[in-house]
Design goal:
Elements lengths: L4 E6 L1 H4 E8 L2 E5 L8 H9 L7 E5 L5 H4 L2 H8 L3 E3 L4 H4 L19 H9 L11 E2 L5 E2 L2 E5 L8 E5 L4 E5 L3 E2 L3 E2 L9 H12 L5 E4 L9 H13 L1
Parallel strand pairs: 3-4, 4-5, 5-6, 10-13
Antiparallel strand pairs: 1-2, 2-3, 7-8, 8-9, 9-10, 11-12
The structure holds zinc ion (ZN) (2 copies).
The site of one zinc ion has 4 residues, from loops.
């Protein structure tokens, strides 16, 4: 659907999405879905005639459970370095529990079960190691790293300028509707607002969101009108 970008998703974990990018320098994987056996990602690699060792970089937008499940196994099978913001690294290694979000139900209410899941922390992911801490302005293959705190303090987004594709993580979601992040998950509203402005300035055509189907084209206009609605 989007050339060079394979979108992977699971119903479990609130339609969480991961993205396998076929770039000239090799495969990059952004996030790893919910399931610990990484079955869907491994099946896609097989379907493409590739192996886990073809993955050059594994990149984490942030350390919420739905995005972390397949990480430990894929790290082991691929030998690829894992990149994340330093703030998320001890969550990924299992040394710290995810920061609590609001207990108050907020729209869209279909996300409330995930607020509870986050706060109760009932299911653990297999611990994994972050090899490289990355920051605003760094590059990983063709991607530019954007620090986009708000949903979590170490939340990252990634921009592929040649293709005008923005990988938004959970800063922008498209399930159960297009939204500038789920209100019930916002840890820092002011920081999140600044992150949204930073992302809007890129005029990305494609938005690959952390939950819900990616927006193949017209992403910049959607983002701008959602921001306008927020200001009104
Ligand atoms: Zn999240
Ligand atoms: Zn998420």
């Amino acid at each position: 659907m989007i050339p060079g970008i394979h979108s992977l998703w699971q119903k479990k974990g609130a339609r969480v999405h991961a993205y396998l990018i076929d770039a000239p320098g090799g495969l990059l994987l952004i996030d790893t879905l919910y399931d610990n056996d990484a079955a869907q990602i491994l099946a896609l690699l097989k379907h493409l005639g590739r192996t886990p060792q073809d993955i050059r970089h594994i990149i984490m937008t942030h350390a919420h459970r739905s995005h972390l499940g397949g990480l430990a196994l894929l790290q082991e099978l691929s030998g690829a370095p894992v990149y994340a913001h330093e703030w998320e690294s001890d969550l990924i290694s299992g040394d710290r529990s995810a920061q609590q979000v609001s207990w108050r139900p907020q729209p869209a209410f279909r996300t409330y079960i995930y607020q509870l899941g986050n706060n109760l922390n009932l299911t653990r992911h297999p611990p994994a190691r972050v090899d490289c801490f990355v920051h605003q302005g760094d590059s990983i293959g063709p991607l530019q790293v954007l620090a986009t705190p708000g949903h979590s303090p170490g939340h990252l987004a990634f921009f592929w300028p040649e293709r005008r594709v923005l990988f938004t993580g959970d800063a922008i979601v498209n399930w159960p509707r297009f939204e500038l992040g789920w209100p019930g998950f916002l840890l820092n509203k002011r920081a999140h607002g600044q992150s949204l402005l930073k992302m809007a300035a890129l005029e990305a055509d494609t938005l690959c969101t952390g939950h819900g189907a990616p927006i193949a084209t017209g992403g910049a206009a959607m983002l701008r009108s959602a921001l306008d609605a927020l200001e009104r």
